[in-house]
Amino acid sequence: MSDEFKVSMKVNGKVYECSVEPRLLLSDFIRHELGLTGTHVGCEHGVCGTCTILFDGMPTRSCLMFAVQASGHEITTIEGLGTMEELHPLQKAFQEKHALQCGYCTPGFLMTLVPFVEKNARPSDEEIREAIGGNLCRCTGYENIVEAVKLASEMMHPVE
Ligand code: FES
Ligand code: FES
After folding, report:
1. Which atom, in ligand 2's list, is nearest to the CA of 101?
2. Would you say the CB of residue 91 lies under 6 angstroms from ligand 2?
3. 102 lines ligand 2 (CB under 6 A)
4. Pairing between β-strand 5-11 and β-strand 58-61 as defined by DSSP bridges
5. How far is the CA of 29 from the centre of ligand 1 (A)?
6. Strand partners, 74
7. Short-list 145, 15, 11, CA closest to 81
């Protein structure tokens, strides 16, 4: 059968070459074909933000793309963000500020926020709330997430 397409993409620095059905969602490809289950799936129609990954460095909803569309591109998932030995500052800040409870939404928040904290040294509460406006969390009430983003930003942009 050849209703499959060959795709090649770099995920967390490693090149993957596979054959996929054209209808396979990128989120399902990442989770089921690559086994990177840190990318979560909630609504599957672009609303909750939990499936967010970095696509060529831009936060992108992986449930709104097909795997074939990612061929030739570079993806970072939560598994590529930090390590157990060395957490990314955002991960450290989420831990320190208790910015998660069940944690289901957390990978999506983190991947959404990576470019934001890289660019923003001292974001206001309003700017942070706007940055996370497309991510839903059922547990935290968002307050601690906002605090964590401020802390991560301070860690990444220390005052000289
Ligand atoms: S699962 Fe993709 S936005 Fe909700
Ligand atoms: S920590 Fe549970 S949904 Fe956000």
Report:
1. 1
2. no
3. yes
4. unpaired
5. 14
6. 10
7. 11
d(CA 122, CA 78): 24
Q: What residues contact residue 34 under an 8 Å CB cut-off, 6+ apart?
A: 11, 16
Please tell me the distance between residue 160's alpha carbon and the centre of ligand 1 in angstroms. 39
How far is Cα 52 from Cα 121, in angstroms, rounded to an integer?
A: 23
- pLDDT one-digit tens code per residue, 84-108: 999 999 999 999 999 999 999 999 9
Could you tell me the domains of the chain? 5-80 (3.10.20.30), 89-156 (1.10.150.120)
The tokens for 108 are 């999506």
Q: Which ligand is nearest to the CA of 109?
A: 2
**Furthest-apart CA pair in the chain: how many Å?**
61
Best of 110, 137, 142 for a ligand 2 pocket test (most atoms within 8 Å of beta carbon)? 137
Q: Model pTM?
A: 0.96
Residues in CB range of 37: below 8 A, 6 or more apart = 31
107 touches 49 (CB < 8 A): no
pLDDT value, residue 160: 74
Fill in the DSSP letter of residue 34. S
